[in-house]
Amino acid sequence: MNNPFLGTGIAIVTPFNDDLTVDYNALEKIVEFNITNGTDYIVISGTTGESVTVTKQEKKEICKAIIKFNKGRVPLVLGIGGNNTLEVVEEVKATDLSPFAGILSVTPYYSKPTQEGMYQHFKAIAKVCPVDIILYNVPGRTAKNMTPETTLRLAKDFKNVVAVKEAGNNMAQYLELIRDKPNHFSVISGDDDLALGVVLAGGAGVISVIGQALPEAFSKMIKLGLEGKAKEAYGLHFKMMEIIDLIFSENNPAGIKAVLNNLDLCNKAVRLPLVEATETLQNSIASFISNFNKS
User: Fold this and answer.
1) Domain range list for the chain
2) How far apart are CA 110 and CA 139, in angstroms?
């Protein structure tokens, strides 16, 4: 069976108009730009999509729009997660997940559960979820790391827990997961800067932020990595290192939206408490894009 989560997935932004309503024209442009330039799948309503400041109704409308724009060309993944287990379970049960290859579900944030608490949280979700589940471990945002032991326990106990998006920027943890994982389970990089190293070590690919702005180069790098062509892949990685650092230097997604704005794909606008990229950052991004396009 083909793995729908192999290669380059993107954590798509939610573009806004000047009045901070959702800009569906820009959303269509970003979807089209990615699909025609090599992106393998699209993740909706992740952190990069400003999921915490998008309303439930907007989330439904964004999903509907992306499904329409996609026209069944690439797999779609929907972010459904939180720190209220019962609420997450109810959202999974209430959502028509038939258009989606899977859900991306973040470890509970703020509450700081134990490893057993995380296991029970995802057990409750796995029992009701009709599609595949990608666990999402991002300790920098949740204040608690899900250990490889807990991740792999879930992978072994629930057949619909098929992958983890690991975003702890911890190569040792990636390697432990890749070494010990069951055959049906994929380790996906959630760190753009480590993605190639993870793929070369046996990871399945990446759910990327920068990938949606540089889909051709980034997806090519990941494909080369999956083929074991390390030297060629690192040639591309080195060209993109600077922009990966830049987009995360202030906040995400202000950085990536500044890149997409430079490419005439969407507005720079983000919703509070986030603020737009500073002029200094925008200038650095513009300089990088100009040089990248010449290379």
Assistant:
1) 7-227
2) 11
Note the residue count of the chain. 295
Structure tokens at 123: 């057990």
Digit-coded pLDDT (tens) for 149-197:
999 999 999 999 999 999 999 999 999 999 999 999 999 999 999 999 9
Q: Is 93 a catalytic residue?
A: no
pLDDT at 2: 82
- In the set 41, 119, 136, 174, the catalytic residue is 136
Region of residue 109 (left: phi > 0; alpha: psi -120 to 50; beta: else): beta
Please give the C-alpha separations between residue 169 and each of 104, 175, 190, in angstroms, as whole numbers: 18, 12, 8
State the Cα torsion 151-153-154-155 to the nearest 10°.
Answer: 80
**Do residues 8 and 211 make contact, with C-beta atoms less than 8 angstroms apart?**
yes
- Residues 78-118 have pLDDT tens digits of 999 999 999 999 999 999 999 999 999 999 999 999 999 99
Contact 77, 5 (CB under 8 A): yes
Q: Write down the catalytic residue from 59, 144, 165, 257.
A: 165
Read off the pLDDT of residues 193-232 as tens digits, 9 standing for 90 and up: 999 999 999 999 999 999 999 999 999 999 999 999 999 9
Q: Say whether 20 sits in a helix, a strand or coil.
A: coil
Q: Is 174 a catalytic residue?
A: no
Maximum separation of any 2 CA atoms in the chain, in Å: 51
Residues 6+ apart with CB under 8 A from 113: 121, 144
7-227 CATH fold: TIM Barrel (3.20.20)
Using only C-alpha atoms, the chain has a radius of gyration, in whole angstroms, of 18
Would the pTM of this model clear 0.90, i.e. be above it? yes
